[in-house]
Amino acid sequence: MRPLSRSLRALLLAVAVACTPSAVAPSAQAARSALPADRIQLLHTDDIHGHLEAETVRSGATSFQQAGMAALAGQVSAYRARAPERTLLLDSGDAWQGTFISNANKGEAVTKAMSLMRYDGMAVGNHDFDWGQDVLAQRAKEATFPFLGANVVDASGKIPAYLTPYVVRDMGVAKVGILGLTFPGAAGIIKATSIAGLRFLPAAETVKRYLPELRGSADVIVVAAHMGAADSAQLAQDVPDAIDVIVAGHDHQPLRTARAVGKTTIVDAGAYAENLGHLELTLDPATHHVTAAQRADELVAIAAGQTKPDPDVARLVEERRADGEKYTARIVGRTVAALDNPREECGLGNLVTDAFVDYGRAQGWKTDVAFYNMAGVRAPLPAGEISYGKLYQVLPFTNTIVSVDLSGAVLREVLEAASGSAGRLHIGGGAWAYRFANPAGQRVLSATVGGQPLDTARVYHVATIDYLLLGGDGHSEFAKGTNVIYGDIEVDVVAAYLTAHSPVDPRVEGRIQQR
What pTM, to 2 d.p., does this model score? Predict the structure, then answer.
C-alpha cells in the first residue's frame, strides 16, 4: 500500500481541524471527564520519523500547523490524567529516522522525548535498524520503555538482547499483554550490513508461538505491529479472535475509523506525530476480557494551539533545535515551484538523479546514468528558498553516492526489476518504457541512455547509492557490477547541485513510461 504524501495528509488534516473540532480538542470534553471504572484507554502513535519540531505542512493553499512532540506529549498528559493507572501508551515503530534534529544524534533525542512521555513499549520498525544494531541496542539501553520485536531472531533463533518479545502490564482491572512485531519483509528494505545475522519471521507464525504464554499471563492481548492496516487485517484473519487490538503502522495511512476484523480492532495513527490515537476498551468485570472497543475521539490531530505543550519535552526539543540550527537554517537553493514526492516519475526525483549524474561527471566517474529508489524521497519541497534542514527531510538516510560499472545486460535487469516486483527507481541520464502486465523478463519495452538505445554489450558507468548496491528494495542487480567507487552522502550532493543551479524547475519528462 502506498503511503499518503504529506501534502495530501495536510489537506485531510486541515479538513479535520476545520470540520470536526470534537475530534481535535478532546481536552475540552473526553480528556476532562473521568474514565469509566470498567474501561482502560490505549493511546498510540507510529512512524514519528524524528518529527520533534512543530512545522507547517502545506497542500497548495491549504496548510496544517503540526505542533510537534511537545504538543503530542501535552495531549498524552491530558488523557492520562483521566486514569493514570488504566492508561497505555504504545508506538509501532520507525521513531527516529527522518529529520536533521533526530538524525544528528541517531534517534537519541526522540528516545528521550518518548521516555519523558512514559511510553509503555515500542515495536521496532524497519527504519529503527538504519544505523545498525549497535545504535539500536544503545537506544534500547537509554529508553525507559521496552523495545518489542517478537519476530526478530538471530541465526540461532533467539531474539537479540536489546529486544523483548512482549511485556505484561497490570492495570488493576486487567492484565494487558503487549507483543511487538517488526515488518516481516524488513530484510528486503534495510541495508544488509545493518541487520547482519538477523531474520524477520512471519507475523502469524510469531503470534501463534507466543499465544499460550500470553493467554496464561494476560486478560487482554494487544499487538503493536510495524505493518500496514491491510497486513494487520490479514494477521487478524490468520489468528482469528485471538488478538484484542492491533496497533498498526508502517504505511503512514491513518485509520480515522477503527477497523474490526472478527473480534480484533485495528487502529493506526498515521505518521510524523500528526495524530494521537485514542481507543477505549470496556472490560467484563468477572473475566476482565474485552467486551467492546470504542474510539471516543477517533484520531486527535496535534494541531498548533489545541493543546498546552509539555514543558520538559518542549525544553528538550528547543535545546536540540538550537544545537542544529547553524546547519539546518543554511539556504542551499531555490525552487520555482513546489515539488511533491509521489511514487512515480516526478520533478523531485528527476532533480535528485540529475544531481547524481552531475556529481559523478564532476568526480571524473564519466557517469552515464543514475538511479535512486523512489521510496528514498521522503518529503516534498515547497516553492521558494530551500534550507538544508528542509532538504534533509527529503533525503534523510545519509546514503553514500557510489559509482559502479554495469554491463548493458545487467542494466536491463535493473530496469526489469524496477518495472516489476522490486522497488521502483528514479532515473537520470536515461529513460525506459515498460508494461507491467507482461511476464517477468519481458516488461521493458524500450530503454535509452544518453538518448541512445540501451546496448546490452556495452559497459555503463552508473551512479547510485550504497543502499541499492547492497541489495536494498529488492535490487540484487547492482551487486553484479565492478569498479565500485564511493563518494559523498546524497543530501550533500543534492545540496551542492541546488546551490550551483538554482533556481531549479524540474519537470516530469517522460523518463519512465508505463504502457
Answer: 0.82
